[in-house]
Amino acid sequence: MPDPVALRITDLVKRYPTGTEALRGVSLEIGAGQFFGLLGPNGAGKSTLIHCTTGLASPTSGAISVFGHDAIDGYAEARAAVGLAPQDLNIDQFLTVAETLDYHGGYFGMRRADRRERTKELLDAFSLTAKKDDRTRTLSGGMKRRLILARALMHRPRLLILDEPTAGVDVELRLELWHYVQRINAEGTTILLTTHYLEEAEQLCDRIAFINDGQIVAQGSSAELAARYGVSGLEDAYLELVGRKELSRGLVA
Ligand code: ADP
Question: Exposed, middle or buried, 101 (CB in 10 Å: 0-12/13-18/19+)?
Fold first, then answer.
């Protein structure tokens, strides 16, 4: 039977050598198939949590498992189950669009024929086929975002992590990306999203956790979180969390 938990984080502590305790006993469970939002102010620990999950940082204590594979003892299996679309557009400028996908597949041990087939499928799904032989540096911002999503999905991860995918993008591209990620989720991929846009989380996520100062301080659906703080929407719940309820839009004249 497949493990119904996509990501299980237990008592995770991360103390950097500088002494900063970025995560202070975080526990979290993301069910398979969920669209999960992780929200919190800058410095709350979101990137650290993602880095620990993808092996870019090592936890000080606690445990992480991805679809039942321990992130340390079962690193290869756990890592293979995760696709990461990072915040920065970290694409190799000298590769073509198709090579970007192919090399990523190679890194994850996919066979040549499978890489070729999967590349074709993703180029098509993300409307990049006409650009397949173009160098990535010639792509527009929107195409780069789509390529980063396609690359994250190349090795067929069951958990996709989107780290602020719509930071600084225009309205059309934001909505376009929403359509893509919603479809990916509907097709069965579990999603962990971090974002500063509360309406984005409200629209996309079926479950949301607030993280503040290295701790999960509240969790639930957008409606549950609003009810918990006795307010009408996610943004006001968030403002309660960060102690800035005087900023509520309801109070803007
Ligand atoms: P977020 O992604 O929510 O903005 P981060 O995980 O980046 O938060 O940061 C959490 C805390 O850890 C912050 O105080 C930040 O300064 C600190 N931090 C992040 N990365 C490092 C690092 N490599 N070395 C030392 N401190 C770090």
Answer: buried
Residue 25 token pair: 């006993």
Atom of ligand 1 nearest to the CA of 47: 2
- Per 3-state DSSP, what percentage of the chain is helix, strand, and coil (rounded to 5)? 40, 25, 35
**Which pTM was predicted?**
0.94
The one-digit pLDDT tens for each residue of the chain (253 residues) are: 556 899 999 999 999 999 999 999 999 999 999 999 999 999 999 999 999 999 999 999 999 999 999 999 999 999 999 999 998 889 999 999 999 999 999 999 999 999 999 999 999 999 999 999 999 999 998 899 999 999 999 999 999 999 998 888 888 889 989 999 999 999 999 999 999 999 999 999 999 999 999 999 999 999 999 999 999 899 999 999 888 899 998 888 7
Nearest CA to ligand 1 atom 24: 16
Pocket of ligand 1 (CB under 6 A): 16, 18, 20, 22, 40, 42-48
Residue 144 structure tokens: 């780069």
Ligand 1 centre distance from Cα of residue 121 (Å): 37
